[in-house]
Amino acid sequence: MNTLTILSLSWQHILIVAVILLLLFGGKKIPELMRGVGSGIKEFKDAVKEEDKPGSENKTTNNNSSSN
């Protein structure tokens, strides 16, 4: 018995999915969706970088305590 390969996508599968997405959303909506996804990923990466910086937690607590 042959093993089942899960998620093996060929170029034909990708083309069919692309055509279906184009039919569902239209040519103008897809770039808007991709821009939104891209900006969301960028904001997420920026937030992760800020969390990883040493001392970033101290800056936010000092700013909050000085404004009170």
What's the total helix number? Answer: 3
Distance between the termini: 70 Å
Overall pLDDT, averaged? 79
Which percent band covers the strand fraction?
A: under 5%
Number of strands: 0
- How large, in whole angstroms, is the Cα Rg? 22 Å
Largest sheet, strands/sense/barrel? none
Give the overall shape: flat
Structural class: mainly alpha
| Overall number of domains | 1
Helix fraction, binned, reads over 70%
Give, in order, the helices and strands. Answer: HHH
Catalogue the unreliable spans: none
Description:
- The protein is built from 3 helices and no strands.
- The chain is an all-alpha fold and 68 residues long.
- It has one domain (1-50).
- The protein is flat and about 55 Å long.
- The chain starts with 10 loop residues before the first helix and ends with a helix.
- The mean pLDDT is 79.
- Part of the twin-arginine translocation (Tat) system that transports large folded proteins containing a characteristic twin-arginine motif in their signal peptide across membranes. TatA could form the protein-conducting channel of the Tat system.
- Forms a complex with TatC.
- This is Sec-independent protein translocase protein TatA.
- GO terms for molecular function: protein transmembrane transporter activity.
